[in-house]
Amino acid sequence: MERVTLPAPARPLSSAGSSIQSLDKGESAMSSPTAETDLSDTGMVMAEKASSRDLETEAGHGDGDGDESDREEQLDKPAQSKLGYQSLLTDLDNGLIGWDSDADPTNPKNWPKGVKIRVMIFVLVTAFMIPTASTLFAPGESIMAKEFGLTNSVVKQFTVSAYVLGFGWGPLMHAPLSELYGRKYVVVCSNFLFAALNIGCSEATSVAMFLVFRALSGVLGCAGMVVGAGIISDMYRPEETGRATSLFLLGPIMGPVFGPILGGFISQRAGWRWTFRVIECLGGVMMGAFIFFVKETNAAILLRQKANRLARSMERPELISIIDSRQPRMSPGRKLAMGLLRAAKLLCTSPVVFSLSIYMLIAYAYLYVFFTTITAVLTTRYGWSIELAGLSFIGIGCGTFFSVAVVGSTNDTLVMYLTKRNNGVREPEMRLGPMIFGSILIPVSMFWYGWGVQKHIHWFPLILSFFPIGAGLLGSLIPIQAYLIDLYGPLGAAASATAALNILRCTAAALIPLCVPSLIARFDYGWGYSIFGFLAVGLCTTMSFFFVKFGKPFRRRFPPRL
To answer: Given the DSSP bridges, would you call strands 320-321 and 96-97 parallel, antiparallel or unpaired?
Structure first.
């Protein structure tokens, strides 16, 4: 269960140092379910002080400490839920600026439903646009190779993979920037760079020039992929994140599926350069949409702006955001440096994040393993045109929609049901049950497709084999992403946790498909894809059962550290 500590009373501004000391002593507030994510933007340092240290102490005592366990049971009760939230209310006597009340309409969690839907629409479109660009060009790869005289199969594959590699590592920069300086303009700047760098791809005159612009567009244009998790944490309470997360994840999964379908028609009829011209136009439109229609959601930024306004209007320069008052004073450069290291630190020091990253590494890479061979198989072995081969990706799309309909729509309900059975105590691991079904479907798809191609079965059951990989991938990603948001949102690190998850999965999606041609040449499709299937059984399926059965003690043994 989640460790929660009681809030300290408000401290005067003059004793900012003592406020930090109180955090060291575990006196600072971090609320239970209703209010947890109100603290999701209080920054890395407060989380280090108030949460990680307490959790480390807890881990040192072990689960056998009866008094400590009883105390945690008490603090996890819903009756305590408003304590941490009260600590974010304005206290003018002490010069601390927070929300005016629990129902303050400027708090993103209290925004009208219509405003939240509008923000989510633009977040979803951006999250769809970025991964779509990874495969939109794929059907035109052979056309570009002929134009530039490119014959090396690894380099040809890397024209697609370079972008995926870029948007795997780019979030290391975008996530901390969004948590330190706000979500909105990080996405605006990223969308501008995305559009500009794709112009470079469309006008490239050599393979080297193309690869440089392709990689940079992935690194600098991918903010929407990771900042969306932070926006969800900003606007929705833990019991609401499951459905919002499932919709958000449609983009990263459906984008690569939709890309080849549209890209096949564009490449065949207008040329490969137009695949980039289409996406650069969309990037420009989304930049404008975020400027004019999306409001800032980061609570730390909103309260800082509010404190600055009141300091000027009330002529009280000492007024400060209640969130900023809980953080030690440091230069912006140091803040950024610490933020940049946060996602990498999570990946390297948290066994929970690392294990789930390995799971998603395999699942996401397998999606791109499919993308590597589907077009070639259907055009050479089945005699389909590029346009028709692109339509076959609908099979994967149907699988992803199935997971959204089943897993996405029921994940929050499942958590509420299990919470009720658990005497009102909500555990993050309650979200992870659907992982089991996802982990079984992924290897099924690999065996089915590999042996189906080798035995040259009819095209219809072959395309049906795409369904399990789509359903299994999203059926795993929805609970994992919602779990990390529940776990790290209260620590102000939802975007960084998502970035950590992206690092390995996108790196694998970029590099593993490069091995597929040589693997197939040696083992043919049947045993080549069976190797992938056995690996999925050994790691993904085993890991899903482990997290569902032993996830809670595993998390308590290795608590979140920032």
So the answer is: parallel
Continuous H helices in 105-235:
113-136, 141-148, 153-169, 171-181, 184-202, 207-220, 223-235
DSSP 342-361: HHHHHHHH-HHHHHHHHHHH
Q: Cβ atoms within 10 A of the Cβ of 64, count? A: 7
What 3-state class would DSSP assign to 362?
helix
Residue 315 φ then ψ, to 5°: 55, 45
The pTM (predicted TM-score) of the whole model is 0.70
Alpha-carbon span 365 to 368, nearest angstrom: 5
- Name the range with the highest mean pLDDT among 17-31, 85-99, 357-371: 357-371
Q: Which amino acid type is present at position 39?
A: L
Query: DSSP character for 331?
Result: -
> What is the radius of gyration, based on Cα positions, of the chain?
24
More confident residue, 495 or 27: 495
Q: Closest by alpha carbon to 480, among 504, 493, 497, 503?
A: 497
Q: Under a CB-based contact definition with an 8 Å cutoff, are residues 500 and 346 in contact?
A: yes
pLDDT digits (tens, 9 = 90+) for 345-375: 888 888 888 999 899 888 888 888 887 788 8
Within 8 A by CB and 6+ apart from 270, the residues are: none
What does the alpha-carbon distance between residue 313 and residue 306 come to, in Å, rounded to a whole number?
11
